[in-house]
Write a structure and sequence with these properties.
single chain
């Protein structure tokens, strides 16, 4: 009986991994025409959702990496690419001189708004039962 429960758990885990992989591929396919991949969009989405009392909404790179599940080095490369494309800006963290803050540019905010319905439609299609 314990072996059956363990096997069911393993199968469930594999189903989750397969769903993640299929969804990631669909997101990449849908976003490709906008010049983004799923990870790019996740960073833009996190930054777009940031609200701060002082005007310029931004996150530290460490805070973004915790939300998008990328290593800090992979995220740094992604942010550098997004910055080169004019979608984000990096700046020094006033609270900690070693830290780097990232915020959306006007171009990044506009692209996020354009692509948001595309990403949400893929999620609805892939993750809604029925």
């Amino acid at each position: 009986m314990a072996q059956q429960a363990e096997q069911a758990l393993v199968e469930r885990w594999r189903d989750i991994l397969a769903l993640h992989a299929r969804t990631q591929c669909e997101l990449d396919r849908a976003l490709h025409g906008h010049g983004l991949c799923a990870s790019d969009f996740e960073v833009l989405d996190v930054l777009a959702g940031c609200r701060t009392p002082k005007g310029m909404p931004s996150y530290r790179v460490q805070e973004i990496s915790e939300r998008v599940h990328l290593s800090q080095s992979a995220l740094s490369r992604l942010i550098a690419r997004l910055e080169k494309e004019g979608l984000v800006e990096r700046g020094m963290c006033s609270e900690d001189r070693r830290g780097v803050k990232v915020c959306l540019t006007a171009k990044g905010r506009a692209l996020h708004g354009e692509v948001l319905p595309v990403q949400r439609a893929v999620l609805a299609r892939m993750l809604t039962d029925g």
